[in-house]
Design goal:
- The structure is a single chain.
- The chain has 566 residues and is an alpha/beta fold.
- A 5-stranded parallel beta sheet has the order 5-4-3-9-10, sandwiched between helices. It has a 3-stranded antiparallel beta sheet with strand order 6-7-8.
- The protein is globular.
- The termini are far apart.
Amino acid sequence: MEFTLPESIEKVALHPTNVLNIRVSDTYLYNKATDKNFLLNAQTDEKVYKKVLIDYASPNMAKELHVGHLRSTMIGACLNSVFQHKGSEVIGVSHVGDFGSPLGSVIAEVLESGEEQFPWLKLVNEGQEVPDEMLPSPTELTQIYINSKKRSAEDEVFRQKAMSCTRDIQRPSWEDNYSKKIWKLVLQASRNGFDDLYKKLGVTITEKGESSYADSIESAMQDLKEKGLLVQSEGAWVCFTSICEVPLMVQTSDGTYLYAATDFAAIKQRIDSGIDLILYITDQGQRNHFMQVFEIATKAGWFEGKSSKPEHIGFGVVTDTTGKKLSSRDGTPMTLANLLTDSVFATEKAIVATKSLMRSEKKYQQVHRKAVDGQYTTEEKLEWLDEPERLGAVKEDFERHSLANAAHIAYNAIIYFELSNARRTNYKFSFDAMLNMKGNTAMYLIYAYARIRSVLARAGENSIAIPTLDVVTDNSKIIELTSQERALCLQLLSFPDIIDKVLANYEPNHLCGYLFDLAKLFHHFYEMCRVIGSPNQEERLKICLATEVVLFKGLELLNVTALEKV
């Protein structure tokens, strides 16, 4: 039986293994791959949640951010961006630990130490405003936290005072007291440190900590008590679940609320607010806790008649190259601030090394490159090899621009390296791997993006019109693609599918792998297919432009900022 193939299909063949091979025509493939609306269209057949809340970052107040917070923060920020790209309304919140006994201990430590050690306390006692510059730094706060924890373990009188301070700050929001005055300043000092690091990472997140639910804890607990889900055990209030034999502690015998109390109040409020999907992003070690909270909330009937769906998104830990806990050079646990600082130094060293590498690569290309399919004449090949900006940036220009952007490159490299690793597994952190110019790194992708920008810039300098990525209405023009062009176009077309794959299991590393493959295909295309001055100049410029659009959007979804020059 004979039939006419549609214009989009070039041929159909039956493989000996009874697999039907269908080859899309070059013309159709090119037209779709250079259609910006198609590439960036987020509306696919996959379900889109109308309203999503993502609970991420969520550090404890009065402590410095550590490397684990990087995982939660960047995974959450990426999923936030991807859900927005898909058209969801996204609420990103940081459920900071600002309401428990550790804060009560910190307050007690401040009060015990007095004005001599903490001069800003004198301003509090005099009823004056305390400027931010007088508040403790993140490192100083952490030391107060450590000191208070040690004293609580060794001194029963101090422990009782700390518990009293805890009960003070857990009073309803409309009740004020002296402990709350100190507490608010400790929170502000913590916030100052967090915000500085979030700014470097390009993250904006709304703080909505445990204390935000102070006024709704009692009603949530009362509901659970009436339904027999919250019961007393040895004076404390607990919930028994099928998740584990140890009950979930909600309130201690002395009346102090624990994490579960605010988690119950928070999830009830989120359900009642009409949130369709509630994601909790923490390390895998907290999974059982959240599964217990979800089970009790379900038994309480809070989800009945509601569209809300809760999920825990767990992640593995970050270690050094030997598999041990990541530490600073002095042997102490690695803080996020120290990691960012060290990354800038490592990036500056890598930039200088890369300058030498690029010179070697240029020399290698001149010696070993061969024309493909006879598409270059001898004169064209010599001109191509002598083109001074073929690599996008070389020699002093490369070093000048890159060193000026070292911090920017370093922070983006950390973000990308974090997200390129599978979420559920542990991974080993290495500056060498993070800054590898040949591997699946931000350095490689940013370099690819800058290379595309240099091509388009050169076109503009030569008064060559840059085509637009519009829908092609005239399909009469027949396009014939080289193998490199075809492979690149096929990769471009799969971008919308990769976005769906990221959200299917909340795995940003799929997007990283896709972009890495895209960059590799572009580099191969760039090396084999002359753009400016070729007979197919317009088509190749459009392919460059389409690759730029997808690279930029992909990096943006990862919260990595592309650079015009590196």
